[in-house]
Amino acid sequence: MNSLNLLASVIDVVAGASMIVLSLPLLRGTTQRNSFYGFRFGRAFTSAEQWREINRYGARWTILWSSLLIVIGIVAFFIPFGDNTTLAFLWIVIPVLFLSTIPIIQAASYARRIAR
């Protein structure tokens, strides 16, 4: 284990945990429609019920994918990066970008489905 392992682990785990914490109010349905927080698709703004439904759906998926990001962060602790900063960088960036984008796509797809 070296500092690259520690860095990759901490970033992935903190990013995953942060996304989970940010999803909890959406999952509970306690967040009102607003201009900066939540899954803010046009369909989500058609009614308070659709806002809650779309955001609960997106929050569930965000929590699932963020849990996987935490697991990836734990695994990063044991990957032999050596001095390969490129590999460590990719181990950080790709999972964070990919796993934070998937629930957005899923929630957008769900918003289109329920509006029909």
Q: Could you explain the architecture of this structure?
A:
Keywords: Membrane, Transmembrane, Transmembrane helix. Pfam families: SdpI (PF13630). The chain crosses the membrane at residues 6-27, 61-82, 88-111. This is SdpI family protein. The protein is mainly α and 116 residues long. The chain has one domain. Helices cover 73% and strands 0% of the residues. The protein contains three helices and no strands. The chain has helices at 3-28, 48-76, 85-114. It starts with a helix and ends with a helix.
Major sheet characteristics: none
Please tally the β strands and state the result: 0
Which class of secondary structure composition applies to the elements? Answer: mainly alpha
Instruction: Tell the overall outline.
Output: elongated
Number of structural domains? 1
Q: Which range best describes the helical content: under 10%, 10-25%, 25-40%, 40-55%, 55-70% or over 70%?
A: over 70%
**CA radius of gyration:** 17 Å
- Give the N-terminus to C-terminus distance in angstroms: 52 Å
Keywords: Membrane, Transmembrane, Transmembrane helix
Transmembrane segments: 6-27, 61-82, 88-111
Protein name: SdpI family protein
Pfam families: SdpI
